[in-house]
Amino acid sequence: MIERAVRGRAAANVVEITEAKTGPPAGTSLGSGLRVTYRAGLADAHLQRSPVAERVTDNFLIPGLFRSTADIALARRDNERREITIEGEDGQMFLLVKIGSVTARQLVCRHGPGKFLAAGAPLGMPRIGGLTDLFLPAGSKPAVRPGQTVVAGETVLATGPR
Fold it and tell me: Within a 10 A sphere around the Cβ of 18, how many other Cβ atoms?
């Protein structure tokens, strides 16, 4: 999903995997489900790719601070973030939340509502580091573990409910 320069490819490290019992950030229609949090370092490439063939249903920036992401809960609450809601071909809803940090001050996604993207298509990037939460539908099962390095467009983060 996100990338770091690993043998010419982009990657990130999974920080935590939790059940988002309280649901994603306010203002989104996505119900509770699995939350996969990953972080890109300063030396990493930062391109994020579409997790599924999808349609962007919402994309907005919420102004905030640019504090350290060492305290993830505080960063989620106070830092600037970009929330991108996407709907898969099967109607499943996903939410990608890019969280700003001391170094990640530009949270880029130029796709507006209604834009269709193929699975693995470039979705955007937090410039220079950053933290990302990916909210997946209820019933999703993680395919990665905390501490694992993931490569955008190659590593399966979770399997969906069927």
Answer: 12
What is the pLDDT, as a whole number, of residue 7?
Answer: 41
Q: What DSSP character marks residue 39?
A: E
Structure tokens at 84: 């991108």
Q: Which residue is listed with tokens 């920036």?
A: 61
Confidence tier at 21 by pLDDT (50, 70, 90):
low
Backbone angles phi, psi at 41, to 5 degrees: -85, 175
d(CA 101, CA 122): 22
Q: What would the pLDDT profile of 134-143 be if each residue is shown by its tens digit? A: 998 888 999 9
Q: Which token pair is 59?
A: 């994309």
Instruction: Report the SS3 class of residue 75.
Output: helix
Question: 72-103 burial, b for 16+ CB within 10 Å, e for fewer?
Answer: eeebbeebbbbbbbbbbeeebbbbbbbbbbeb
- How many angstroms separate the Cα of 161 from the Cα of each of 33, 137, 140, 141? 11, 8, 5, 8
Angle at 15 between CA 13 and CA 18, to 5 degrees: 135
**3-state secondary structure (DSSP) of residue 73:** helix
pLDDT-based confidence at residue 128 (cuts at 50, 70, 90): confident
Write phi, then psi, for 84 (nearest 5 degrees): -120, 115
